[in-house]
Amino acid sequence: QLQLLESGPGLVKPSETLSLTCNVSGGFLNISGYYWGWIRQPPGKGLEWVGSVFYSGTTYYNPSLKSRVGISIDTSKNQFSLKLRSVTAADSAVYYCARERRQEWLVSAFDVWGKGTMVTVSS
Amino acid sequence: SYDLTQAPSLSVSLGQTASVTCSGDKLGSKYVSWHQQRPGQSPLLVVFRDNKRPSGIPERFSGSNSGGTATLTISGAQPMDEADYYCQAWDSSTTSVVFGGGTKLTVL
Questions:
Q1: Quick check: B36 and B13 in contact, CB under 8 A?
Q2: Does B93 touch chain A (CB under 8 A)?
Q3: Partner-chain contact A107 B48, CB within 8 Å
């Protein structure tokens, strides 16, 4: 059974870089038809897509975050990572990693989610 | 940017049918997924590709998408269905994933 688990610091200082890793177990990253994504949720608010990566390294980012975000993948370690630069309090959120089903053109669905990890931006 | 609009809240009586809607420009030309999020839990995919149910999702969950509105229908609503529901789509013009703002469903 595929499982995703986020890890990383729970507290990041303003202007610094938020770094998170998603470890995948029970399956492999290098499969066709699936991307691997990051989604965040500020406390009490809705879901916001951050970006997604394919096992080849191809990435797609939320246009509103594109200038600050980077997502990478390491298939040998079965993990993918998020870096968000120059963070502010507005970046405080629960960050989820998830598998994104993209087996058909125009179809996108996050079908397996991690438990999420809370990241607070504060000095 | 492409926007998906959902009503913030919806109430349904126990055993009745709930219709959660999501609207967007020419949304019928895109494929919509729906996620359920119970308090304190991670989201759970309940419908994808407009009207497909993942394995393990009860038949009372169904979806449709036409024109500018996608609808998640929950037939015979149960107390366990009380949750936030988010629609999601892929916008090819901006090559980005979009989520709706979410609808909080209350089962009375």
A1: no
A2: no
A3: yes
